[in-house]
Specification:
Elements: H1 10-20, H2 25-36, H3 46-58, E1 63-67, H4 73-80, E2 87-92, H5 95-107, E3 114-118, H6 121-127, E4 133-138, H7 145-152, E5 156-165, H8 180-193, E6 198-203, E7 209-214
């Protein structure tokens, strides 16, 4: 029987976050504002934010694309990882969420590093088809995850990374009769696991992140 990871309970998760990924005042305010404005508290966890931060640093990314800004929490983690000339383009379909995000970017002093495009992500990606990216974070409607991958793979620089969030879907990926969103994640994981243009692995951090390294 192969070795398995240590099951991550709340106490262990808190230990990881407090030791390696403690939120500063700005990030804590973003979470508090998100809750007070009745925006769903579905942003990434602090350890996932630090994970994205480190991946971007590791590959020395300068051009980052995010699909799904919500209130800007993950965008801030990623923008902070970039060098002075680095930029994040983030896509958000909800006008209210976009407005809140822009306020949070200013609060973090990162508005000059972040460009936010509103509207359908698939339509925005068509407008960005001639751009090149080092790092893409997919965290939007799960049933479109594979479509987003198909759009961005041709925009990737060699050695870049595509990361998709929620790829364990709260454990639903191994249950019978998946809903449309879980099926979207199942399709995504199968697609990137078998795509010869990338090397991929699902990492069991938080709700799962599938990491794809572009060859």
């Amino acid at each position: 029987m192969s070795m398995k990871g240590v099951p991550l309970n709340d106490k262990l998760h808190d230990y990881i976050v407090e030791t390696f990924a403690e939120e500063d005042e700005v990030l804590r305010e973003v979470v508090a504002d998100t809750e007070s404005l009745d925006i769903p508290l579905i942003q990434i966890s602090p350890d996932s934010g630090k994970f994205l931060f480190m991946l971007i640093k590791m590959i020395r990314a300068r051009h980052v694309l995010e699909i799904g800004a919500l209130a800007g929490y993950s965008t801030i983690w990623m923008a902070r990882a970039l060098p002075e000339e680095g930029r994040v383009i983030t896509l958000e379909i909800n006008e209210k969420h976009a407005e809140v995000s822009m306020g949070n970017y200013k609060k973090a002093g990162l508005e000059n590093k972040i460009e936010l495009l509103t509207g359908s992500a698939l339509e925005s990606l068509d407008k960005l088809k001639d751009r090149k990216f080092d790092f893409v974070f997919i965290d939007a409607d799960k049933d479109n995850s594979s479509n987003y991958f198909d759009k961005v793979i041709s925009c990737m620089n060699k050695g870049g990374m595509i990361v998709c969030d929620n790829t364990l879907k709260h454990g639903k990926v191994v249950e019978e009769d998946p809903d449309v969103y879980t099926q979207g994640i199942l399709d995504y994981n199968k697609k990137v696991a078998n795509d010869s243009r990338v090397d991929s692995l699902l990492v069991s951090i938080s709700d799962g992140m599938t990491i794809s390294l572009v060859k």
